[in-house]
Amino acid sequence: MAVVLLAASLITGVATPSRAQTVPVPKPAPKARDSVQMSASDGQKGPITTGATPAPPNPVIPDPHRNLPANIFATFDANQKAQAAKVSSYLSSLQTLVGSFVQVGPDGSKTKGEFYIQKPGKVRFEYEAPNPIDIIADGSSLAVRDRKLATQDIYPLSQTPLRFLLSDRIDLLKDTNVVNVTADDIFISVTIEEKQALIGTSRLMLMIGTKDGQLKQWTVTDPQGYDTTVAVYNLDSSKKIDPGMFKIDFTNYATPPGQSRPVFADQAIQRILSAGWRPRLCPSK
User: Fold this and answer.
1) Which of 178, 262, 264, 277 has the most CB atoms around its CB within 10 Å?
2) Domain ranges of the chain
């Protein structure tokens, strides 16, 4: 898919937009490795502190030629378990989050926007013009809305990787299929793998700052092997969010009959979240 989130997506940190914030130094994509490890110590000296208006981070793009773990049933050592627990604790501690994002699609094109999270299960992604897309989850369904065409498609939230980020509490090692945990002096990276009949295997990689313990970016790999990476910044976990932002409008936006085509939801949303791709969200015949 994915999203957002997968686009799978997924997103976090504690810093008000009006204050200075630490953002990653731009760096080239990591070189090929023999595992799913996607850390970024090579070529990156460390974070820098910007002024009152943080500059967007430059996402760390995974190597498209990386290999999967040889044994997906491999156990994790004590340090890996501790790192995964740290990420789980951080994600579980969040209840609301507001911030900005930079998204890089499979073709390398970039787009930006704002996002809003209210746990459990609610999120809103607003893309900057000229991209007319909004993505809204109300706790059970996810709507991909085209403001220009006044149309939307509806998908079960349970079919997207967003559910991992939007869970009220989560233990990654127990609640998901973690296939890799790595850490260096810049990032803690946790890779989740999911296999679905008729769709294939998708992956979600979360990258958390080693020093501040906050989410920096995620990468979703769809069953075809295409990556969509989202880096987040300018974050605020204390801002109150209007509940109406997560309401799916079934009055002013045309919606295809039924709740969706869940078998293809991951693939559809992944493509929608890929920068530069303009979906045709027309009602099904």
Assistant:
1) 178
2) 3-272
Q: How far apart are CA 180 and CA 76, in angstroms?
A: 8
Interval 189-220: pLDDT, tens: 999 998 887 778 889 999 999 999 998 999 99
Q: What is the CATH number of domain 3-272?
A: 2.50.20.10
Q: Tell me whether strands 7-8 and 3-4 are parallel, antiparallel or unpaired.
A: parallel
Q: Which two tokens stand for residue 250?
A: 């079934």
Main-chain dihedrals φ then ψ at residue 94, nearest 5 degrees: -80, 140
Amino acid at 260: S
Write the DSSP string, the chain.
Answer: --EEBBEE--------TTS--EEPPP-PPPPP-SSS-----TT----EE--SSPPPP---PPPTTPPPPS-TT----HHHHHHHHHHHHHHHH-SEEEEEEEEE-TTS-EEEEEEEEETTTEEEEEEPTT--EEEEEESSEEEEEETTTTEEEEEEGGGSTHHHHH-SS--HHHHS-EEEEEE-SSEEEEEEEEEETTTEEEEEEEEEETTT--EEEEEEE-TTS-EEEEEEEEEESS----GGGG---SSSSB--SSS--GGGHHHHHHHHTSTT-----PPP-
* Residue found under tokens 């970039």: 110
- Give the span between the Cα atoms of 55 and 2, in whole angstroms: 26
Q: Among 255, 262, 258, which residue's Cα sits nearest to residue 283?
A: 255
